[in-house]
Amino acid sequence: MQKPLIAGNWKMHTTVHEGAELVLKLREFIKSTDSIDVVLAPPFTSIQHISHLVADSGIELAGQNVFWKEDGAYTGEISAQMLRAIGCSYVIIGHSERRALFGDTDDRVNKKAHAAVKAGLKPIICVGETLEEKEAGRTLSKVKGQIMRALAGLKTGSLRELTIAYEPIWAIGTGQSATPETAEEVHNSIRELLYEDYDTSAAKKIRIIYGGSVKADNIDSLMAMPNIDGALVGGASLKAEDFARIVQFESA
Ligand code: 13P
Description:
By secondary structure, this protein is an alpha/beta fold. The protein contains twelve helices and eight strands.
């Protein structure tokens, strides 16, 4: 089994100075990263500076997005190689905000996943259903379809470095997290899908993390579930004390 992964997605928050302050506070509060992978996804403009501040801390960095081409005339875009060069080891792909607001289709998510793997970045692929889809009983079909299309053509070997983030859209930024039981049910189905499609040892190593209103006061019960391998945290990752508490969750 892989270590649990707790990632903070800062979204479009923090200037480079604010980000630096946050990281320095976090380093004070987080006592050890020996038994957990801790990843921060600051805005692009802060990543390089923060990479110096997390050196020797065990904290790793992620891009919040990536373009699939290596370089070229693509104004405003950032390649996987560029992210690697400034100290990222992970990249978030297909976040629901990018899917809803910036045209990230399943096909684009798949291209980005291939580009990330090729450059040696570990993809964190986000999937999740809307409230309407949940109420219509379409959660599993939505999530499974997104995963199959995101992973199309990726070799089993590269899947070991993969994380799936289940982020129900209705739970993001609403304060209304999925219950541990509901999240576990979806994670368990995702695990079964991975076992069906990939060899057992590869499927076992893929982490399935939960995102959507993860807070200091619900992380312990979420992490007590057998198929919840970590969390992707938005709002609470911007408060050093809260994020440190989430990282240092109490296992059952
Ligand atoms: P919140 O934790 O603010 O609900 O955001 C979740 C998220 O979108 C992480 O990627």
